[in-house]
From TrEMBL:
Statement: the UniProt record of this protein carries the keyword Membrane: yes
Source organism superkingdom: Bacteria
Tagged with keyword Membrane: yes
Protein species of origin: Clostridium drakei
Subcellular localization(s) per the UniProt record: Membrane
Record-annotated membrane-spanning stretches: 32-51, 58-78, 98-115, 122-145, 176-197, 218-242, 248-267, 288-310, 330-349, 356-375, 387-406, 418-435, 455-474, 507-525, 531-552, 573-595, 615-632
Protein name: Oligopeptide transporter, OPT family
One Pfam family per UniProt: OPT
């Protein structure tokens, strides 16, 4: 028998009158087994999200996969805790993922400006952001979760709640995630730096009159992301890549062919303008147009948030004045902890500059306060997957940068401090979104909000440690520049370009402004500016394989004969794709650790057919078939 939530879970009654799924008995779902399972999953999702997010510019929400995996482990190790234990585990999974989704936007930018960050600095700033974001969000819990029940729908929270309620089917989902993990792991082992025994990039570059570049990276985690996000997002990103590689790049290529004299590339004096190859045009010119598009998209998003900011603060203040149930004593301690650690971190990262420490900390806390409230409200409308973290972060970074410039703090070391303040802000914003989403699930299924608060905070701290560690392990690869870098880092590249350019006065403003106006045009055409801009900025090899994943999902939908069959296949496909993402990212990270840290694996070098486009085509076809066959063979329950 299928279990479902009551219709009141979606509204129709006041929040104070809603009867949760578990309406009697103990509200506690926690014990040591649940905590250990949650910590393990928080660490896994943090590592996976950090790796895949830095590679693709997209992150995958962990709530549903976390609830599926958590259901299986709870059934084995803490069966008596049932759905309440499963809820805590999914919340901790979301905690690890949401912290990673925030920190990777800014922290890697420190490496891109040629500076370094210690584990302690990254960890302290991350933990401060986690605690402050959770603490401020807890202040508005009653308003966002209870009073606005049925008005703020929290779409992803409801999907997670339904998954938990129907969790007896988790075994089937686990099977498909396991298949995906295996496929992703095997292909990653043979194609990445783990063994590197075969080429996995299909590449065509034309250096003649009409310069262009087309590539496909055969990467299981990117294919899985494409299946999960679907056709709309994937197609918009690919449109940006087409504009970049087949319009802007050839246009610049045409004009440089007319160049005369000894003029050189603005940031590479060793290359003459009229001798530029595709890689030079892409890296020194097209890249900055893409940065301008993302900057424009971020500002447009921030401007569009102004009414939401005003109404959120106004309604929050009204709600707080009429209700004293907003936050627990634990919540107040968490806020205080966030503020104290924020100031400690401020002094730690300011290099002895007391003025910078105080001013930077106060401004970071204020901007975090502002956008955390907005983040919580927007999560209730569009979910965490679509949360405009980029827009809020860009607006915050620009404000902090202007403060630094006004105070004369313009050295590379000052820029490093600025980016660490930015990491605090983005972590708080992202943590608040994940926290509110998890608390809504707790409200719907009937858990203890204070217990979720504590477990989520632990997961966030674990996530901050793991993400900082992952970034440091990958530091040599993240800092690479030039053509075919292993990690695209679109958001972090934007942050480093923006802050370093403003501070040094060497930002290529013509290209930035061109990109910004292209973003305005996209906005006037009612197109998703940031999505297209990220596609414009990312290597076309990345956007192409993401699009192939989306086409796989479309194919599955089109050949399904009934709605029930389609629903089952797509659900299993998303589970398998989550496994592809996890397998590709976790195994890829393990390979890098074994090579660079433990030094027990030596990467091979493909040669002959293994190094050709032909072998990459073979792997692509094998990946598609291996992924599609299990999905199309899905057993449909109660299908006609």
């Amino acid at each position: 028998m299928d279990k479902k939530l009551s219709k009141d879970a979606y509204g129709g009654v006041a929040g104070k009158d809603y009867v949760p799924y578990i309406s009697s008995g103990s509200k506690s779902g926690g014990n040591i087994a649940v905590l250990i399972i949650g910590i393990i999953l928080a660490a896994l999702f943090a590592a996976s999200t950090a790796y895949s997010g830095m590679k693709s510019g997209l992150t995958v929400a962990a709530g549903i996969p976390g609830s599926i995996i958590g259901s299986a482990f709870i059934a084995i190790f803490a069966k008596q805790k049932g759905i309440l234990g499963k809820n805590l585990v999914q919340g901790m999974s979301s905690g690890g993922e949401s912290i990673a989704s925030g920190m990777i936007f800014v922290l890697p930018a420190i490496l891109l400006i040629g500076s370094k960050v210690t584990f302690l600095q990254g960890f302290v700033v991350g933990v401060g952001g986690v605690l402050f974001g959770i603490g401020i969000a807890s202040l508005v819990h009653n308003y966002l979760i209870v009073e606005e029940h049925g008005k703020l729908m929290y779409p992803e929270s409801m999907a997670i709640s339904e998954t938990l309620v129907a969790s007896e089917g988790a075994g089937e989902s686990m099977k498909y995630m396991g298949i995906g993990f295996g496929i992703g792991g095997v292909i990653t082992i043979i194609t990445s730096s783990f063994l590197n025994v075969t080429n996995n990039v299909i590449s065509y570059v034309n250096e003649s009159f009409y310069k262009w570049k087309f590539e496909v990276e055969v990467n299981p985690l990117l294919l899985g992301i494409g299946f999960i996000v679907g056709m709309d997002v994937s197609l918009m990103m690919f449109a940006g890549a087409i504009l970049s590689n087949f319009a802007i790049l050839p246009l610049i290529g045409y004009f440089i062919s007319l160049g005369q004299g000894s003029a050189t590339v603005w940031n590479n004096p060793d290359v003459a303008i009229n001798a530029m190859q595709v890689k030079h045009i892409a890296g020194s010119y097209v890249k900055y147009i893409g940065a301008g598009m993302m900057l424009s998209g971020g500002f447009i998003g921030a401007i569009k948030l102004i009414p939401t900011i005003i109404s959120s603060i106004k309604e929050t203040l009204n709600a707080k004045s009429s209700s004293s149930n907003g936050s627990s004593s634990a919540g107040n301690l968490i806020i205080l902890g966030g503020i104290v650690i924020g100031f400690i971190g401020g002094f730690m990262i300011s290099g002895g500059n007391v003025g910078m420490a105080i001013a930077g900390s106060i401004l970071s806390l204020f901007l975090s306060l502002l956008f955390v409230i907005v983040s919580g409200r927007l999560t209730g409308t569009i979910g965490t997957s679509n949360l405009p973290v980029s827009g809020m972060t860009i607006a915050s970074i620009v404000i902090v940068t202007l403060l630094f410039v006004a105070m004369g703090w313009k050295t590379p070391e000052n820029n490093r401090s600025l980016l660490l303040f930015g990491t605090f802000i983005v972590t708080a914003i992202s943590a608040a979104g994940g926290y509110c989403q998890s608390q809504k699930v707790t409200f719907i299924v009937g858990g203890d909000k204070n217990e979720m608060q504590k477990y989520f905070a632990i997961a966030g701290i674990v996530g901050a440690a793991v993400v900082t560690g992952v970034i440091l392990v990958l530091s040599s690869q993240l800092a690479m520049t030039g053509d075919n870098v292993p990690f695209a880092l679109p958001q972090a590249n934007l942050m480093s370009t923006l802050t370093a350019g403003i501070m040094s006065g060497k930002l290529p403003w013509v290209m930035i402004i061109v990109g910004a106006f292209m973003g305005v045009v996209l906005f006037l055409l009612d197109l998703p500016v940031m999505t297209i801009a990220i596609g414009f900025y990312l290597p076309i090899a990345t956007t192409t394989i993401i699009l192939i994943g989306a086409f796989m999902r479309l194919f599955v939908e089109k050949i399904s004969k009934s709605e029930k069959v389609k629903e089952t296949r797509v659900a299993n496909g998303i589970s398998l794709s989550s496994g592809l993402v996890a397998g590709g990212s976790i195994i890829g990270l393990v390979g890098i650790i074994l090579i660079n840290v433990v030094k027990i694996v030596k990467a091979g070098e493909p040669s002959g057919f293994a190094a050709s486009n032909g072998m990459a085509y073979v792997i692509l076809i094998a990946l598609i078939i291996a992924s599609l066959v299990p999905i199309l063979n899905s057993k449909v329950k109660d299908a006609e």
